[in-house]
Write a structure and sequence with these properties.
This protein has about 130 residues and is mostly helical. Helix content is about 35%, strand content about 10%. It has a two-stranded antiparallel sheet. The N and C termini lie far apart (about 70 Å).
């Protein structure tokens, strides 16, 4: 009768390494976020490379886009407001034309046509996506 030895592989962690949280400076976060924006579908790859979760990278991206990371670039775009092309008829309440649209030309040359009653936060997200792409 033969006895087979069972060998198992295990890792030994030094005391204090389990559950340790790493703190990232804003400069490191910015570098990682900018790396994740290069190329197509790089978020998960970059997160894995730096040992962070995809959700954390998404939070950093959101903060970066809102300019909340110290040192993140902020962008200003020139805006020209033109007079109304047609005056509203007498007695018509302001905002009565719910299908009215405004056209915005972005710094990269793309044009965006949106309804005049679009929420500012939704418009901000659209512009950010179109400026980045």
């Amino acid at each position: 009768m033969s006895c087979a030895k069972v060998v198992s592989q295990f890792e030994v962690f030094a005391a204090g390494e389990l559950g340790r949280r790493r703190t990232w400076s804003d400069a490191e976060k910015i570098r990682i976020v900018e790396e994740s924006y290069r190329g197509h579908r790089q978020g998960s790859v970059v997160a894995r490379r730096h040992g962070i979760s995809r959700a954390l990278l998404t939070q950093w991206r959101r903060a970066y886009d809102l300019g909340q990371l110290d040192g993140a670039p902020t962008a200003f775009t020139a805006l020209e407001i033109a007079p109304d092309p047609m005056p509203l008829p007498q007695g018509a309440p302001r905002g009565a034309d719910t299908d009215a649209r405004v056209e915005i030309t972005l710094a990269n040359g793309r044009r965006l046509a949106v309804r005049v009653d679009i929420e500012a936060s939704a418009l901000t997200r659209l512009v950010q996506v179109l400026e980045r792409a």
